[in-house]
Write a structure and sequence with these properties.
Elements (H helix, E strand, L loop, with lengths): L2 H14 L1 E3 L4 H7 L2 E5 H5 L5 E7 L5 H12 L5 H9 L8 E7 L3 E6 L2 E6 L10 H12 L3 E10 L6 E12 L6 H10 L3 E5 L4 H11 L3 E3 L4 H13 L4 E5 L5 H6 L2 E5 L4 H6 L2 E3 L5 H17 L1
Parallel strand pairs: 2-9, 2-11, 9-10, 11-12, 12-13
Antiparallel strand pairs: 1-13, 3-8, 4-5, 5-6, 6-7, 7-8
The protein binds adenosine-5'-diphosphate and magnesium ion.
Protein name: Copper-transporting ATPase CopA
Subcellular location: Cell membrane
Family: Belongs to the cation transport ATPase (P-type) (TC 3.A.3) family. Type IB subfamily.
Length: 298
């Protein structure tokens, strides 16, 4: 590869709305055969909105929402943003001592009580029927449910015990360009896969709508990395497209890490290539450009 030809490729990449970390990125772009896509913020807009709030018996919906929003004020996750945006402003009480656990949820102290907002899959306590039903309905419809836990006294030793007090459902939209981009990946001979920390129901609903058959859902950020490593050990050259902080490790593991421009600075730093517009079709353009550019200089 001559430097001049690579420079041309890089320059045209910038015109397409792609930032390459270095010219050598074109080489891995050319060899990719599998494209792993994060769901939230990559295939979907990542702009989640609040759909519903359900309170456990004896609790109040508005209070559940206010407590959850106070905690999520400390989160960078689209789920947190949806809950904050859907809650009354200003909130009656702010939270302190925030802890974000990637792929799990967010917690904080509100009015002297520990409150967390977490994935239903991480809740050990049994959910009251009304909450379990709310989770099931949301997930079968392709939405995302989170459980609000609040410390209640009641443990045998007199200590506080986290009790499920409500379920909040949020949903986002599939990007208008995603289905066309995935069809384009297939035309380029790439196998698309959806890899997400979100629940199986939401993942399957999105995958069906955009034309992806291969779905791995409910995975931790660490597991995302392992899934990519397993594909590589079977001889695949893997591109990973992601947006969030929780994708940084997987992006770094991939042969080609692509960060969506709508994502966080951390993901962008981990990506070899940044798609400025957030439009997945640009990824297909980049792969075509890399093949063409390197094809001419071999
Ligand atoms: P994705 O792969 O779709 O980006 P994440 O790994 O970010 O998903 O999150 C996985 C799951 O963890 C979410 O679907 C949600 O259940 C839970 N979760 C993550 N962050 C938060 C948060 N700030 N508040 C509530 N739940 C969260
Ligand atoms: Mg994400």
């Amino acid at each position: 590869a001559t430097p001049t030809a690579l420079m041309v490729g890089t320059g045209r990449g910038a015109q397409l709305g792609i930032l390459l970390k270095g010219p050598e990125v074109l080489e891995s772009t050319r060899r990719v055969d599998t494209i792993v896509l994060d769901k939230t913020g990559t295939v979907t807009t990542g702009e989640m909105t609040l759909s519903s709030v359900t309170a456990a018996p004896g609790y109040d919906e508005q209070q559940v929402l206010a407590a959850a929003a106070a905690v999520e004020a400390g989160s960078e996750h689209p789920i947190g943003a949806a809950i904050v945006a859907g809650a009354p402003n200003p909130l009656p009480e702010k939270a302190t001592d925030f802890v974000a656990e990637q792929g799990v949820g967010m917690s904080g102290t509100v009015g002297g009580r520990r409150v967390s907002v977490v994935s239903p899959s991480k809740v050990e306590a049994d959910l009251p029927d009304v909450l379990a039903d709310a989770v099931a309905a949301a997930e079968s419809g392709g939405a995302t449910a989170v459980v609000v836990l609040a410390d209640e006294t009641g443990a045998p030793d007199g200590k506080a015990l986290p009790a499920p007090v409500g379920v909040i459902v949020v949903a986002d939209r599939i990007k208008e360009t995603s289905a066309a981009a995935i069809a384009e990946f297939r035309r380029l001979g790439l196998t698309p896969m959806l890899l997400t920390g979100d629940n199986e129901g939401a993942a399957r609903a999105v995958a069906a709508e955009v034309g992806i058959d291969d779905v791995t859902a409910g995975v931790s950020p660490q597991r995302k990395l392992e899934v990519i490593a397993e594909l590589q050990s079977r001889g695949h050259v893997v591109a990973m497209v992601g947006d969030g902080i929780n994708d940084a490790a997987a992006l770094a593991q991939a042969d080609l890490g692509l960060a969506m421009g709508t994502g966080t600075d951390v993901a962008m730093a981990a990506g070899d290539l940044t798609v400025v517009s957030g439009d997945l079709r640009v990824v297909a353009d980049a792969i075509r450009l890399a093949r063409r550019t390197l094809g001419t200089i071999k």
